[in-house]
Every structure is written in structure tokens, then in C-alpha cells.
Specification:
By secondary structure, the chain is α+β, with helices and mostly antiparallel strands. Helix 2 packs antiparallel against helix 3 (141-170). The chain has helices spanning 37-40, 93-129, 141-170, 177-201, 203-207, 215-221, 228-240, 255-274, 282-286; strands spanning 2-3, 6-17, 24-30, 41-47, 53-59, 71-82, 86-87, 131-132, 135-136, 326-331, 339-345, 351-357.
Length: 358
């Protein structure tokens, strides 16, 4: 809360990294509880020795001894900071944070590339060195499968990181937000997968304290700077913005709809190429065959080429086609939607025709 020329901070924060060696802290706090967190949180610089800061515990990672960690559980008890210690503007904590986090996440991904490559090297060395049942592990097909999967994952990941870095150079971290989120997801997955396979090939030695495999680092990659699930949601929302729903109840690639689109497109080309030019003799136009007695659909004209057997619309649920001449419209869905028009022309034995309307 604001108190004159100062801000008063009260609350707790779990896992404040490197507090015990820092001279100042960066604190995100709610300054306007009446709006959404994205507009109601602000960021402050707080001296680490400010009155009211209480370190409840220093927490370590899974492999570290109790009390030896660098991640503090800290309590802020009416800690006062000057108004000029506000970073950015009031309510702009997320703007400031994302400016830093975008670059930080791609750096995490770069480091994950290097660690994953090292784990692939360790895995291949083990596969070529360890003998079992008269041959090297590298001769076993399941080991080859693990090596191939690891190399494919690593190469795909490296190229995505490289492409994302290039996009950032061309624009900014904000413009490459989707790609950065994807790199962050892959950093956790690829490093975890390759490190786990490398550890597995080392057997008991792999799980001993005589070797170190960054399986837990891969796990942490999926948590730090936002969990994997949050980044996947971000990617999905960004991708979906580039698409739109179908214009009716049926998918765009529903075969009858695709057939109608093709007829609309190519009938126009056929009609255009067959239309006489102004310089053509008058007899050219009169020599064209008379149109069928049945009026064609305004949006899809029948052609002289019969549709393939697989385009028989009677094979699709909800679609009806005439069998013996005339016209019969089969509607897809209760409200109409796309209608398929079956036309059979008796002259010259052309057989069944398919057209569309609506």
C-alpha cells in the first residue's frame, strides 16, 4: 500500500533465489487489488537489509543438504521502500517481467541444448564401451533406438532455438513470444529425455553418486520461469488465433464439400476457356452444343466429365443424390448447410452428374 512518499510491503514469498548473497531484491506486489493482477501488480527494488525482512529458511534443491540451499522463504513485515524504488510504472509489473523473462527463457533453452548434447555424447560413449552378452550395447536395437531418438530430438530442438534467436534479432522478444514459449517447453522435455536415457544406459553407476546426470535439471526446466503447462497454453492460444472455425457444421475437408469447391473452381475455368472471343466467327458460337434442359445450379455447373465412383454422395450420411434423372438435393445438417445436387443427363449416356448449391 502507498503511504505518502513510501510503499509499505507486507506478505511472504517462497523460493526467492539467491537472497542470502544479494544486496537488493526485486519484489512483485499487489498495489491495486480492485483490478486484474495484470494491471494491479507493481515491481519494487527492496534493499535486502531493509527492516521487516525475515528469512524463514534457505531451501535447497533435491540433492543439496538441509539448510545449504540458496532459495529463501522470506516474509515481508511492513517493509518500507521509497516511492522512487518503483520499477516501471504502477501496475506494470508484468510488462517489466515479460521484458526480462523472454530473453531469460531463450537463454535457458540455449543452455539446455549444450547440456543435452553433452548427455548424447555420454550416452554414445557408454553404448560403444560397455560389453554385455558378447557384444557392445551399441549393437542392441533398443539402444540404437534410444540414440536415434535422442539425436533427432536434439537436432530439432537446436534448429528451433536457432530460428527463435533469429526472429528475436529481426524484431523483439515480444514478437517471438510463441517461439520462445515453444523453446521453453522443449528445453524441459528434450533435456529430461536424453539425460534419462544416458543415465539408464549406465545402470547402477548411473544412479550412484559417482556420476551426475541432469535429469533433475530437466525437471526444473519445466518449472522455472513458468511451468510447461502455461507455455503450452500460450502457444496454443497464439496458434489458434491464426485459424477460424468451419462456416457450417461440417469440416472444410469433408469430401462432398471438397468436391463442390473443386467443381466451382474448375467449371469457371472450363466455361472461360470455352467462351468464344469477339473475333471468332459467328458460326463458332452456334456450333456449341445446346445446354441441358435441366437448369444447372447457380454456383456449380455440371461438366462433361463424370465424377469418380468414390464421389457418390449416397455413401455419405445425410447426403442424397438422384438416380434416374432430374434433380434431388440432399442437405447436410438440419439447417441446410451445404447442399449436393445430383443431375443425370440422358443425352449421350453421360450417366450421373454431381453439382452443388447453397
Amino acid at each position: 500500500m502507498r503511504d505518502g512518499d513510501e510503499w509499505v510491503i507486507t506478505g511472504e514469498k517462497f523460493f526467492s533465489s539467491n537472497l542470502r548473497t544479494s544486496s537488493f531484491l526485486i519484489v512483485m506486489a499487489v498495489t491495486d487489488p480492485d483490478v486484474s493482477p495484470y494491471r494491479g501488480m507493481s515491481m519494487f527494488l527492496v534493499p535486502s537489509d531493509a527492516p521487516g525482512i525475515q528469512v524463514l529458511a534457505n531451501i535447497g534443491l533435491g540433492h543439496e543438504p538441509w539448510g545449504e540451499g540458496m532459495h529463501a522463504h522470506v516474509r515481508y513485515d511492513s517493509v518500507r521502500v521509497p516511492a522512487e524504488n518503483l520499477l516501471g510504472g504502477e501496475g506494470q509489473a508484468f510488462v517489466v517481467a515479460q521484458t526480462r523473462l523472454g530473453g531469460g527463457r531463450i537463454h535457458h533453452a540455449m543452455r539446455a541444448v549444450a547440456m543435452a548434447r553433452r548427455q548424447l555424447d555420454v550416452m554414445c560413449e557408454r553404448a560403444l564401451s560397455r560389453q554385455t552378452k558378447g557384444e557392445a550395447l551399441a549393437e542392441k536395437q533398443l539402444v540404437q533406438d534410444a540414440v536415434a531418438d535422442s539425436w533427432i530430438q536434439l537436432q530439432s530442438f537446436r534448429l528451433m532455438v536457432l530460428h527463435t534467436a533469429w526472429l528475436i534479432d529481426q524484431s523483439s522478444t515480444a514478437e517471438a513470444r510463441r517461439q520462445i514459449a515453444a523453446c521453453k517447453v522443449l528445453a524441459a522435455e528434450v533435456l529430461s529425455d536424453i539425460a534419462r536415457r544416458a543415465q539408464h544406459l549406465h545402470g547402477a553407476l548411473g544412479v550412484s553418486n559417482l556420476m551426475r546426470f541432469p535429469v533433475d535439471v530437466g525437471t526444473m526446466m519445466g518449472i522455472m520461469d513458468g511451468p510447461t503447462e502455461v507455455h503450452k497454453v500460450s502457444v496454443a492460444r497464439s496458434v489458434l488465433k491464426d485459424h477460424r472455425p468451419s462456416d457450417d457444421a461440417w469440416p472444410t475437408e469433408f469430401a462432398p464439400k471438397a468436391w463442390c469447391r473443386a467443381r466451382r473452381r474448375f467449371d469457371e475455368l472450363v466455361d472461360s476457356s470455352a467462351r468464344p472471343t469477339s473475333s471468332a466467327p459467328a458460326s463458332t458460337a452456334s456450333s456449341r452444343p445446346a445446354p441441358p434442359t435441366t437448369s444447372p445450379s447457380p454456383r456449380c455447373r455440371p461438366t462433361s466429365t463424370p465424377p469418380p465412383a468414390t464421389s457418390d454422395c449416397s455413401a455419405h450420411p445425410g447426403v442424397g443424390v438422384g438416380d434416374e434423372g432430374g434433380e434431388h438435393v440432399g442437405h447436410l445438417g438440419e439447417g441446410g448447410g451445404v447442399a449436393l445436387l445430383g443431375q443425370v443427363l440422358g443425352d449421350e449416356g453421360h450417366g450421373r452428374r454431381l453439382a452443388c448449391s447453397g
